[in-house]
């Protein structure tokens, strides 16, 4: 039995169209928040809010770095700052134990900082006693 090439093309096109329709529906539903009616305004606004939070966290982190960098006695190159919703975590090393509290106080003084978790440790330079 010989199958008509036009019929084969029509079946292939129907399969592709059905697959694309099913794929676009599942990907659209996965990105929509629970209880959404499918409006693009709801999806767009929910997609921008995490970005805004990340931008604010990044800006706060930069402000804390800038405040630490103003103090020349502190080597900010070995300090990492993580900011999340106003909570700042300090990680890394300093060369003097007094700098641990000083860096925490500097971070607390930055506007927008709600709390500071200080995980700084003292690291002596190589060859030092």
From TrEMBL:
Residues 56-124 form the BON domain. Residues 1-24 form the signal peptide. Keywords: Signal. Residues 31-56 are annotated as: Disordered. InterPro entries: BON_dom (IPR007055), Lipoprotein_DolP (IPR051686), Transpt-assoc_nodulatn_dom_bac (IPR014004). Residues 31-53 have a biased composition (Low complexity). It comes from the Bacteria. PANTHER family: BON DOMAIN-CONTAINING PROTEIN. This is BON domain-containing protein. It comes from Paraburkholderia kirstenboschensis.
